[in-house]
Amino acid sequence: MVYADVFARSIDDPEGFWAEAARAVTWTRPPSRILDAEAPPFYRWFPGSELNTCYNALDRHVEAGNGERPALVYDSPVAGVRATFTYARLLDLTARFAGVLESLGVERGDRVVIYMPMVPEAVVAMLACARLGAVHSVVFGGFAPKELAVRIDDARPKVVVSASCGIEPSRVVPYKPMLDAALDLAGHQPSRCVVLQREQAPAELGPRDLDWDEAMAAARPAGCVPVAATDPLYILYTSGTTGRPKGVVRDNGGHAVALLWSMKAIYGVEPGDVWWTASDVGWVVGHSYIVYAPLLLGATSVLYEGKPVGTPDAGAFWRVISEYGVRALFTAPTAFRAIKRDDPDAELLRKYDISSLRALFLAGERLDPDTYHWAAGHLGVPVVDHWWQTETGWPIAANLRGLAPMPIKPGSPSVPVPGYDVRVLDAAGHDCPPGQEGSICVRLPLPPGTLPTLWQDDGRYVNSYMSAFPGFYLTGDGGYFDEDGYLFVMGRTDDVINVAGHRLSTGSMEAVLAAHPAVAECAVIGVADELKGQVPRGFVVLKSGVDIDPALLRAELVRAVRDQVGAVAAFKLVDVVSALPKTRSGKILRKTMRGIVEGADEPVPSTIEDASVLDGLRRTLREAG
Ligand code: COA
Ligand code: AMP
After folding, report:
1. Is residue 479 within 8 Å of 488, Cβ to Cβ?
2. Taking a C-beta distance cutoff of 8 angstroms, is the pair 400, 392 a contact?
3. What residue ranges do the domains of the chain occupy?
4. Which terminus has fewer CB within 10 Å in the chain: N or C?
5. Terminal Cα distance for the chain, rounded
6. Is 174 in the pocket of ligand 1 (CB under 6 A)?
7. What distance in Å separates the CA atoms of residue 267 and residue 384, rounded to the nearest whole number?
8. Is the separation of the CB atoms in 260 and 52 below 8 Å?
9. Of 557, 384, 581, which Cα lies nearest the Cα of 486?
10. What confidence score (pLDDT) does residue 466 get?
């Protein structure tokens, strides 16, 4: 098939295109209407139709006679456990956990927050919510109690599902005390918390808590509740420009249609194939490509609890590929940078047979050419960069390996995916010519599976994404098209940063620094890092008259960000400066700061209030080494 034809059809006749894709889903009331475009910029896919996402992910495969096919392979070098769950077994566990939730009063539309490490029970909990028509909100385990509390207050869950601990290679991380601390901070209180006990650090349970195993032993399986295609399946909070996270809403119908289509068209995966996404269920990549897409398709999904290095060594990924016959691997470039750092010549690769592997997919951050060439050279399979966001839930730009493979250009995630009318716009809203950088936008309507709104905040949805260029969705990334129509994504144009493929807001870190009694003002910027792509770096100005040991202050600030945002922020660098560079209207010149920190030959903006401040910044950086 020719890419240009498929793409043109998806843009010229989106309803016909997606109506056809929708046939791959089992509906309890099939769609008769495809797109409700009556109230732009709010669009609804498949209005009036009904389905159950869990039924599509589990029951229908069992009913089709594939109950004995492995659905989930759990491999945890950190816990020393390996286990395979067939579709029939995963269905049984999910139906029973849905019964647990039902017995706790969870009904269609109720929210359930899931704060868990990479264990099969996290997948079971997500699917159990989907089974009941409840709305899950998974919070990544690396976030601190305050971040969890903010999400609990916004989602207002009836029940929270958690585990006693997570396991990082260097330490066991008790989750239950973090959950308790979050509930102390939160205004909203769930009626019950279900806690999975793990032997590495069992938790003390309180009167509100329920032991996962005991609840499951007493549970009666629950059936699938049909929901409207437009009903929310989940809320996933993601970092915006302010410290307050955005609750990205995902619907049921458009999500199932788009993810199923993407598995075959983009990733070239078929039912029964072994597919591995090395990420975390707390991120969108984990939601879409560890849990929903592979299960909707009837593939086998690997759930790996561990890191690419140090569990036990940089050969961990090769072992998993060879052991389970993984056909395609999807992870973030950082994972490969870590492997390359520890095993530069890929010597550990020689110990394993990874001939099952057909392709490596990378996303979540910019794929630097070094990492691309290293991976492509050593693995000998196509290394496919693709670009997407929590908001879209599936790729915006990719190389359609299943439908119409195209040549790969290092540095580019290839071309717009069918359904996404991607445009690069200049400040006046005109299309940029090839080679000229601008704001990457997508002409409305967005395809199925993308965010219909933000949780209970239509106003913020419009302001954040739809206002800058009316009729277009603003991605927040800058970039350009080349003469061949390949898109190059150059980085965020806002204050969102990407640390080891983890999306974080500098605003939330600034809020923590600003709260320190010695700090008058501050800025946090993302600076280049060899391993993590970007890391945050803070600059603080002291209140006048404050006399504090800078080393002590630095330690306090680093500790505060770790305690209040989370270890995952990897906030380790902070300096005291006498002033921050600002425009005459008082806006901090972050881009200029970033340029100076990274040693770029950054021109001094004409809007700067006092250019001598830059010398102070340079001096501080020289002294900090
Ligand atoms: N629960 C608790 N703590 C967590 C956590 C979790 N789920 N995930 C990370 N952390 C902690 C880590 O232990 C680390 O703590 P430390 O400061 O005490 O060492 C900190 O958060 C930073 O974690 P991380 O960014 O993972 O750094 P790392 O140095 O431990 O590992 C990599 C670096 C590159 C190996 C790792 O980031 C990686 O595997 N990245 C793959 C990318 C990925 O999965 N991206 C998701 C989107 S696709
Ligand atoms: P998240 O919402 O966590 O998936 O992060 C989305 C952001 O990650 C995007 O807006 C980009 O800034 C960045 N990103 C994701 N994939 C890529 C990619 N392939 N190339 C460059 N940046 C990427």
Report:
1. yes
2. no
3. 3-306+386-474, 496-624
4. C
5. 54
6. no
7. 9
8. no
9. 384
10. 98
Instruction: Specify whether the CB–CB gap between 360 and 381 falls below 8 A.
Output: yes
- pLDDT number for residue 605: 87
CA distance 502 to 519: 27
Instruction: Name the residue with the closest Cα to ligand 2, atom 3.
Output: 503
Mean pLDDT over the full length of the chain: 96
Q: For ligand 1, is residue 269 a contact (CB within 6 Å)?
A: no
- Give me the CATH code for the 496-624 domain, please: 3.30.300.30
* Burial grade of 586 (CB within 10 A; 0-12, 13-18, 19 or more): exposed
Q: What gap in Å lies between CA 442 and CA 422, rounded to an integer?
A: 4
Q: What's the confidence (pLDDT) of residue 495?
A: 87
Inform me whether the pLDDT recorded for 244 exceeds 90: no
Strands 359-362 and 383-385: parallel
* pLDDT number for residue 1: 75
Ligand nearest to the CA of 388: 2
Of 76, 164, 167, 168, the one to substitute when testing ligand 1's pocket (max ligand atoms within 8 A of C-beta) is 168
The tens digit of pLDDT for each residue in 170-207 reads 999 999 999 999 999 999 999 999 999 999 999 999 99
Inform me whether the pLDDT recorded for 527 exceeds 80: yes
- Give 344: exposed, middle or buried? Use CB within 10 Å, 0-12, 13-18, 19+: exposed
Average pLDDT of the segment spanning 270-277: 98
* Amino acid letter, 15: E
Nearest-10 Cα torsion for 183, 186, 188, 190: -20
Q: Which amino acid is at 53?
A: T
The CATH number of the structural domain formed by 3-306+386-474 is 3.40.50.12780
User: How many angstroms separate the CA atoms of 541 and 521, rounded?
Assistant: 5
Cβ pair 226, 135 in contact under 8 A: no
Q: Is 436 exposed, middle or buried (0-12, 13-18, 19+ CB in 10 A)?
A: exposed
